[in-house]
Design brief:
The complex is a heterodimer. By secondary structure, chain A is α+β, with helices and mostly antiparallel strands. Chain A has 3 helices and 6 strands. Chain A has a single domain (6-110), classed as YaeB-like fold. In chain A, strands 1, 2, 3, 4, 5 and 6 form a 6-stranded mixed sheet that branches. Chain A is globular, with a radius of gyration of 13 Å. By secondary structure, chain B is an alpha+beta fold. Helices cover 46% and strands 26% of the residues of chain B. Classes of the chains: A alpha+beta, B alpha+beta.
Chain lengths: 113, 203
């Protein structure tokens, strides 16, 4: 798995959210309504950008893990805290380079932990 | 002057995504398909999705399709409103905590589950009706409870409520909360406890 790192992952995710409809995709999954609030209209791209802006690169707020089905694909797990609430944003990119590319979101929700 | 128009996906466009069925990165083709929502259950025609070219399943959904999906979701849901005594909110919280959860999402899931169970069995519905008449169901109705429920579930539950002699939706909600609490210790609640434990772990 080739890691991207916190700074680049965060910048790419924000760039995709700003970039418009063609750069935001959602992985098809069960429970999309509750687990992907960006897909179900519970939060806007602007609100996810705000969450990512307050996210730090510390171990408790960011992890880069293998995709559960495709191990060589890095998945970025952001766990920012805003207004006392911890959020969970899980996203991946297929190219992984510096260029602007679609962000594929798996999860966007308040953390249960 | 150049247009500030953002780009959108169109039918026939190609991309890539992880396909959940194939378990690998696949090429995708954008197509208008009927999209199935799991909760609330609904079939939405003509939604642009990214289809896996290998298995023909839906691999991803573009952001531009979500307003249409969410509109259909709203149409498939009904809103159940009730005013209940404040202590019944605590009862519901204790039930949710029993399953290791106490978030609003799971508390709502518990209530939806009991409304569904209530609608499916007249024996259980009669038990819920009796609980709704219990002293614990009484008190000033200070708490406003609002719940999204699938339209068919709510109409079946309300039909059952009238069948067993209940007079209001509030009574039905109170009974459902108390039935959830009663199930924590009763023998008859074993199956429902097991289902809720699975739900708590998976939703």
């Amino acid at each position: 798995m080739r890691k991207l790192g916190f700074k680049l992952a965060k910048a790419k995710t924000i760039a995709a959210l700003r970039g418009g409809p063609q750069l935001i995709l959602f992985e098809e999954r069960e429970g999309m309504e509750a687990k992907n609030l960006l897909a179900s209209g519970g939060v806007t791209p602007e609100e996810v950008i705000a969450l990512l802006r307050v996210c730090r690169g510390s171990q408790d707020q960011y992890r880069e893990t293998p995709h559960h089905q495709v191990a060589k694909l890095p998945v970025h797990e952001f766990k920012p805290v805003m207004h006392g609430v911890r959020w969970y944003v899980k996203v991946y990119f297929l190219e992984g380079a510096g260029e602007l590319e679609p962000a594929i979101f798996i999860s966007v929700h308040e953390s249960q932990a | 002057m150049s247009s500030p128009m953002k780009s959108f996906w169109r039918a026939g466009d190609r991309s890539r995504a992880v396909c959940g069925r194939c378990g690998k990165v696949v090429e995708t083709r954008f197509e208008y398909r009927t999209y199935t929502l799991d909760a609330p259950r609904a079939e939405i025609p003509d939604v642009l999705v990214a289809v896996c070219v290998e298995c023909d399943g839906i691999a991803a959904v573009p952001f531009q399709s979500t307003p249409r999906i969410n509109e259909a979701r709203k149409e498939a849901e009904a809103s159940l409103e009730a005013r209940i005594p404040r202590h019944l909110e605590d009862v519901l919280a204790v039930v949710a905590s029993h399953y290791g959860r106490n978030d609003s999402e799971f508390r709502a899931a518990v209530l939806r589950f009991y409304l569904h169970a209530f609608a499916e069995s007249d024996t259980f519905a009669a038990h819920v009706r009796d609980l709704a008449g219990d002293d614990l169901a009484r008190g000033p109705a200070e708490e406003r409870l609002s719940l999204k429920v699938q339209k068919p579930v709510l109409s079946r539950a309300w039909e059952m409520a009238r069948q067993v002699g209940m007079r209001s939706r509030t009574e039905m909600v109170k009974g459902a909360i108390l039935a959830a609490a009663d199930d924590l210790e009763s023998r008859g609640g074993k199956q429902r406890r097991a289902t809720l434990a699975n739900l708590a772990a998976s939703v």
